[in-house]
Amino acid sequence: ICILISFFSLMYSYIVSNFSILNVFQNSHTSKPLLYKITAVWGNHEGSMLLWLLVLAIFNYLLFKQYNKKNFILISKTLEVQALIIIGFLLFTIFTSNPFEKVELVKDDGLGFNPILQDPALAIHPPLLYIGYVGYSAVFSLSVAALSLNEKENFNWYNYMRPFALISWSFLTIGIGFGSLWAYYELGWGGWWFWDPVENASLMPWLIGTALVHSIIVLQKKRSLQSWVLFLAILAFLLSIIGTFLVRSGILTSIHTFALDPTRGIYILSFIFLLGLYSLGIYFTKSKNFIDKKFFSFFSREGTILVNNVLMIIVCASVFLGTIYPLLIEALFKNKISVGEPYFNSTVIPIMIPAFFIMGIGPMMSWEKDNFKKIFNKINLNILMTIGTTVIFFWSYKNYTFFGIAGIFLAVWVIINSLDILYKKLKLNKNIKNFSLSMILSHIGVGLIIIGITGSSIWQEEKIIKMKINEETIISNYKILFKEINEISGKNYLAIQGKFLVKDLNKNFVTELKPENRYYPISNNFTTEADIHTNILRDLYLVIGEGDLINGWIVRIYYNPLVIWIWIGVFIIFIGGIISVKKNYLILKRIST
User: Fold this and answer.
1) How many angstroms separate the CA atoms of 208 and 357, rounded?
2) pTM here?
3) What per-residue string of b and e applies to 545-565 under the rule 16 or more CB within 10 Å gives b?
4) CA distance 324 to 172
5) In Å, how far from its chain's centre is CA 426?
6) How far apart, in whole angstroms, are the C-alpha atoms of residue 258 and residue 248?
7) Torsion of CA 17, 22, 24, 30, to 10 degrees
8) Percentage of the chain surpassing pLDDT 70?
9) Helix (H), strand (E) at residue 36
10) What is the pLDDT of residues 544-570, one digit of tens each?
11) One-character DSSP codes across 200-268
């Protein structure tokens, strides 16, 4: 209740422009639109920590609501661990990140807010991401509590863990999706944002969370992988806090980072060390009580899940190494090195290729040892359909690369197998509630993301030219005419706006694009606002840069095939996750009464 009151007190201070509070003075202005006054609450370090605490308290309450006579000891221990986490972050906020610090000399106006962050997608990106990050605290606490139980007290703790694991994973998925969407159209360079160290910070717990969700399924079905699930639950939250450390320590330079005070980084690093020592110490001393005596075949559904779990761990380790290694080298030897896209693509993509192949075939297999001939008979038509669809893609785009062929093939493979399962289940069952619709939707979503990533990576066309008014250029199958330039003014900015007419090669009108180059006088910042025409096959993406009437303006044009399917896929995964959360919450409610 106190955290809730604090959070909304800070929000009220932003709404009424109370510049006696340093946090409001540094991040707001009277001329700022109301939406961005509200979202500025978590658009800075101190306010975002208050949001983090609020979400942490909400999950604490959700855990408390699970109390009953059957699980009294488990939930009590879980709340004890959760309380330690809350106290740690409360002390961090009060002593290093006080959002209510006062200013000595109150001024009429504030310093404003970073214009790049004044965007609807970024407004909801941090709360969604925080639900994902902080949700793993509940999973972590349940894991430590389960490890602390005596053998007599040990019961189906994983039924309590699964809804929280699914909530965290689902919201982390949609949070990452909104972040990449914001970066795609706001940063004005035509590509979806990836391999940025701060984005990697959220990707790592997502990878472990993916492994965790699938492992709990095996645990519920086969009563195996108990110690593995407990380890993944601990690791997911520790990686979430490591992500917090990277963002708030000042050791990374990114538009996404907040704090530049090294004392904050030292505090979080110490907190990670203590939590890691505490949780992993309990795990390595008590996990022997959870070692499975059951064995299963690798040529079965649980076998494919375990193999993919291992691959997710390897990918996570590769991303962790690529993100942390440059920081360690700089800290130890004062040398700056960069690890960028070539490293991540060359290490992650080869590992993900077999993972996606297994994802396509795994759900087709039974929970017991399966027969190769039986499986082949199930998928032989799907293989032919996948090959045929892949050929159609490359016949349409007329561009061939190994990773392009692999990406499209695997995406179509995952989607066709998922649709095949859906068709057969509906045909046999006629009751959609009796099978995992959430799994099918999530796998289809992953396939669509792969299509979007592959298409926009290998078939993207880019053109950077200087254009004068009434000049024309061609990209892909489109003619683009620079019609005019105008000066416009918004509520808190001035801008030049270009007007571009887009026609196809048959001179049929397609759209009108109006990119802007904005100036924010309060913060003395310039930003570019791309204009994008989207359909299901491609994006036409246009940015106008510096220039004048005599010499013309720098214009960047991108033709991005299939890119929209990245975010359609993310949304479908989120829907699948929420369906599963609801289903598992009802199961939990039933076993708790």
Assistant:
1) 19
2) 0.90
3) bebeeeebbebbbbbbbbbbb
4) 21
5) 32
6) 6
7) 40
8) 93
9) helix 34-39
10) 988 888 899 999 999 999 999 999 999
11) HHHHHHHHHHHHHHHHHHHHHHHS--HHHHHHHHHHHHHHHHHHHHHHHSS-S-STT-----HHHHHHH
